[in-house]
Design a protein that fits this description.
Blueprint: E1 2-4, E2 8-14, E3 25-28, E4 36-38, E5 56-63, E6 67-69
Antiparallel strand pairs: 1-4, 1-6, 2-3, 2-5
């Protein structure tokens, strides 16, 4: 995900609906609209055959006017 425009924000990949503080990504940007920071995170979760696992990218705007965009999640299944 990307954050720009004089913003301070944090994001995390989580199975819940709020920031997981143990795995947060934090960014503080200068007040320049053309500057952006790219953040990336990786999390691993155990899965059980036939059980649905929902994973979310959750972000909080800590200083107004955060522009959080280009967010995406990619799931990789690695059987053992």
């Amino acid at each position: 995900w990307r954050i720009s425009g004089g913003a301070t924000a944090r994001c995390s990949i989580t199975t819940g609906t709020s920031i997981d503080l143990a795995f947060e990504q934090f960014a503080r940007m200068p007040n320049i609209a053309e500057v952006a920071v790219v953040l990336a995170g990786t999390r691993g979760y155990p899965v059980i055959n036939g059980v649905l696992l929902t994973v979310n990218l959750v972000c909080d705007e800590l200083i107004p006017d955060a522009n959080i965009y280009d967010s995406s999640l990619t799931a990789i299944f690695a059987p053992t």
